[in-house]
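Design a sequence for this backbone.
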């Protein structure tokens, strides 16, 4: 019996689902002083503005829509939608026609000629709206104050004299940002702010992290932002996971990560560099006074291409974390001869000491090369 009553209630309410109503400015005629009918001519390309009326005050730009079902209003100042169009504009067409889609209520419009003269406001009603009050006051034969009780999985909202019934979307985290990054060993992140968006406002949300910095952090409504008070930093290869847990119609989680890695380098220079290598920002300064640039964060991998270098009677240097690599030229596929690497005690820009290995091509090179790690 309960299911039948619910279905009947829906069938009664569905015809009242909110829809926009089309209104077009009418062209009529007036009576002259001697009784003859005088035509009111259309104003081609007239500027048209629609206003919403409350208690006789018609000064607020009206919300208009570009279709019967649209829920996104046209921009303020462009609230005209011509017949057969879905574009928002601010003027009549070549024949002077103008209108738009409205929610029921009281409105007015003004007309502005191309010479700058303005006529109006002219009042009109849409959908039989009289007082402009909001809320549903009658449903079929029922009158007075009414409340809408929706069943599970439905959302009921009122606007003017209409009821909108829709299914409730499954709760989800749309995005979780602001608490992630790829960092060089020793770099720090202080007081990061995490941001989140949802399909609906959750009942609660918390942010935790595997470093246990200000964790758990309880967010406050609307649960879209929170600042983790504290500092994240690591001097060895590490990954910190930051997790958002949000409770709505279901419990959902989302993750971000911070990673710490050594930086590797590559470049060209004069032969004969020693184990003395100094950090200079995100580059490395060799004993030959040549600077080799960053080739990225993270331990190098087999198959990785490290730069593209143009040489002119120079050698190529690679400062890597592994000591047993072999290389080929990615341009030709031919092996590249490198000397046995020199062990380097490298102190990076953040003061972290990293054991690295400086590779130098055996021969002076001419032309362009792209070293690829073969093993």
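Sequence:
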């Amino acid at each position: 019996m309960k299911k039948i009553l619910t279905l009947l209630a829906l069938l009664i309410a569905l015809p009242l689902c909110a829809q926009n109503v089309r209104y077009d400015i009418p062209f009529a005629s007036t009576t002259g002083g001697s009784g003859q009918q005088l035509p009111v001519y259309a104003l081609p390309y007239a500027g048209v503005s629609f206003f919403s009326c409350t208690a006789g005050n018609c000064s607020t730009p009206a919300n208009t829509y570009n279709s019967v079902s649209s829920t996104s209003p046209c921009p303020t100042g462009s609230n005209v939608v011509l017949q057969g169009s879905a574009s928002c504009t601010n003027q009549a067409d070549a024949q002077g026609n103008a209108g738009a889609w409205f929610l029921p209520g009281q409105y007015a419009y003004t007309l502005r000629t191309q010479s700058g003269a303005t006529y109006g406001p002219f009042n009109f009603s849409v959908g039989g709206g009289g007082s402009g009050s909001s809320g549903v006051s009658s449903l079929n034969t029922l009158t007075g104050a009414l409340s809408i009780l929706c069943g599970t999985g439905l959302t009921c909202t009122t606007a003017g004299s209409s009821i909108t019934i829709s299914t409730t979307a499954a709760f989800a985290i749309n995005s979780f940002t602001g608490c992630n990054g790829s960092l060089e060993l020793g770099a720090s992140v202080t007081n990061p702010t995490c941001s989140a968006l949802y399909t609906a406002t959750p009942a609660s949300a918390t942010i935790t992290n595997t470093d246990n910095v200000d964790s758990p952090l309880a967010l406050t409504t609307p649960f879209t932002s929170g600042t983790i008070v504290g500092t994240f930093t690591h001097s060895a290869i590490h990954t910190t996971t930051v997790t958002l847990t949000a409770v709505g119609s279901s419990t959902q989680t989302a993750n971000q990560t911070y990673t710490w890695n050594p930086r590797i380098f590559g470049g060209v220079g004069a032969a004969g560099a020693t184990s003395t290598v100094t950090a200079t920002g995100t580059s490395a300064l060799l004993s030959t006074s040549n600077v080799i640039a960053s080739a990225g964060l993270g331990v190098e991998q087999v198959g990785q291409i490290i730069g593209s270098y143009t040489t002119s009677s120079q050698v190529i240097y690679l400062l890597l974390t592994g000591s047993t690599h072999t290389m080929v030229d990615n341009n030709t596929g031919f092996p590249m001869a490198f000397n046995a690497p020199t062990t380097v005690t490298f102190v990076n820009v953040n003061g972290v000491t990293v054991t690295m290995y400086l590779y130098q091509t055996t021969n002076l090179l001419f032309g362009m090369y792209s070293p690829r790690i073969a093993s």
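The CA atoms of residues 261 and 298 lie 5 Å apart.
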